[in-house]
Every structure is written in structure tokens, then in C-alpha cells.
Amino acid sequence: MRDVHPAPPRRRPSAPRPRAAAPRKRQRARRPVDSAPLFVRILTHNAAIICAVILAVGAGVFYFSPGKGAPPVAAGMSVEQLGDLMNQQSDMDPVTANAVAYAKQRAYEKQVKADRLLVEKAKKDAKAAAALKAKRDAAKKAAALAKANPTSAQNQALGKQMNALKGWSGCWPSLLTMWTHESHWNERADNPGSDAYGIPQALPGSKMASSGPNWQTNSATQIAWGLGYIKARYHDPCGAWSFWQAHHWY
Prior knowledge:
The protein is mainly alpha-helical. It has helices at about 40-45, 45-65, 80-90, 95-150, 150-165, 170-185, 220-235, 235-245.
């Protein structure tokens, strides 16, 4: 007897797997056709709007920019009236124009002159103030020297004696007062503002060398020179003092 083997069970064929559906392409939505007219679409376009805004701003700046100039047309006047006004102004004759120019020139020159005078006055005032200060300082110095110098009274006594020898005893008060103003009878009095020196304030002091080489320190030499100068110019101390009172120098 043949062994009968049971037949293997048959496999049922598996159902085929469904394929993945291919992705569909997205179709762009179509813009609706604008039915507006062409010129409306141009005017409403962004580029057109921007250009219009730029032109409007430029026109505003041109016509309404701040400044001192007059507007293009004066208020209440037409262009024709402005033209007539300009024609009237341009009819100025050369004589009138020259007169206006001359007046302007004179005004300018007057202003320049006034400015120059102010500058010169400031310089003169400064120079005068410096000279006055130097004079005051010299006077203070001379006064201090006269007080400190014990020979001041001796110089006056010597001057009185020499003045009498000239025959001018009656003019002694004039000489005493005048040389007191000049030097306080100090043989070393030096005026830095004028280089005048000594009791008679010889200008310059070296002129007294004609009376002696010791003119810088010797009172007799200085008095002798001073009396000689007074005689030559004013005849005597009375005349010299009279001139000094009127001019503050002799």
C-alpha cells in the first residue's frame, strides 16, 4: 500500500497593495479679469500714485518755501499791474541814479570814518592814560625824593643866594614856586615822560653840561644853568613864572 501524504494546503494569493496616489499639482488661481478701463487702471497703479505724491511735494516746496522774497504775484495785484509798476521803476534817469549812488557812497565813507575815529580815539585814550600815569608816577617819585633828600632846603637856600646875585631878589617867590612845581628842588629829579632832569628840569638834562661836567649831581651847576636859561628867554624869574601859569611849562 502506498503511503499517501496529504497535499500541502494551497496559499491564497494575497491581494495586491494599492499604490499611493501621485500628488496632484496645485493650479494657480487665476486672477479675475479687471473689467475697468485702461486709463483707470494706470491712474490707480502704485507707481503712478507715488509719482503723483512726489510731484505734489515738489510743487509745494517750490511755491511755499520760506524766505524773504515776495510771492510771485503781489496780493491784490495782477501780473499786468506788476509789469506796469516795474516799468515805472525802471524809468529812473541817470542823474537820479547817480545821486542815490553818491548818497550811498557818502554814507559808507561816513561809517568807515566813524569807525576809524573810534579806533584812533581808543588808541589816543590809552596813550594819554599811559602818559598821565607816567607823569603822576614821576611826580610821586620826585616828591618822595624831595622829602627823603635832606639837601632840598639847602638847594633852595643856594638858589635864593644865586638868584640874588643876578639882581632878582624881588622875583625869588616866583622862582621858588616854579621850581617847586618842576622838581621840588631835587637835583636828581628825572621825568621819565620827557627826559627832563634836575632842579630846573632841563630838557634834555645833558644841556646842563654847558655849565659843568657834574651837571647830574651838582645843585650849583644846575641852578646856574637854569638862571641862564630864564634870563635868555624870559628876562627874569617873574616873567618865567607868569608864562608857566598860562602854559604849565617854561
